[in-house]
Amino acid sequence: MIEGMSSTSVRVVAVEMRDSDPSQIALMKDQGLTTVDDLDLVAGQAALVYTLLGADGQFGVKDSADQLLPPPPTSRTGRGRQG
Hints:
The protein is an alpha/beta fold. Helix content is about 25%, strand content about 10%. It has a domain at about 1-60.
């Protein structure tokens, strides 16, 4: 399933809540996916937005995370209102 999702042009990010037990983050990381392990926190929700905009890595509060948040995007890549 992961291989099928990853073969599309849509960005795939694995997420879970802090209390997910057992955690699937290690499995998702081994599959090459960017992960967020604290979607139940505002920081996790922000990390998800940043990853959907292109940040790669493992984010959150668990031992498997590299850092809490990715750096904010430096350019606007999404569709925005032109004014």
